[in-house]
Amino acid sequence: MISKKGFSLIELVLAIIIIGIVIIPTALLYQEAMHGSYQTKVLTIATGLAEDKMEEALGLGYSSVADESLTSFASPFDDYSYQITVHYVNEGAFDTSVDPTVTDYKSVEIQVSHSLLDQAVVTKSVLTNY
Fold first, then answer.
1. For the chain, is the Cβ count within 10 Å smaller at the N or the C terminus?
2. 3 belongs to a structural domain
């Protein structure tokens, strides 16, 4: 009787095909998961930057807070940019701009953007002159 040791060529080819069928989709899933994880990281950082910038803007006070055009953050966040928009608004109607002589309220909006985000992170608040 002849004893066989090892694998035949057909068994080896089948094993390679099966491993390829399993590994390729797994690698693609891993790549997608890593990309999604990075986008989540970018969104989390953008949200934190927006909150920090809002605190800074509100800390200026009613008379000093003003519009700022699109500006990049300092390093290490220079991939992110922000814009501050300020409108005078009436009490209870914070989405409608009014003449500054008839109100003591300002709506402050901060938009933080990054190239990987589909839309900017937006924070809004209202500041009063009281």
1. N
2. no
How many whole angstroms separate alpha carbon 57 and alpha carbon 49? Answer: 12
Model pTM score: 0.73
- How does pLDDT run along the chain (130 residues), one tens digit per residue? 566 677 788 888 999 999 998 998 888 888 887 777 788 899 999 999 999 999 999 999 999 999 999 999 999 999 999 999 999 998 888 888 888 888 889 999 999 999 989 899 999 999 998 7
For residues 127 and 105, the answer to whether their CB atoms sit within 8 Å is yes
Tokens of 3: 């004893």
- Contact between 41 and 82 under an 8 Å Cβ cutoff? The reply is no
Domain presence at residue 1: no
Domain count, the chain: 1
Give the CA dihedral 99, 102, 103, 106, nearest 10 degrees.
10
Domain residues for the domain of 89 are 9-128
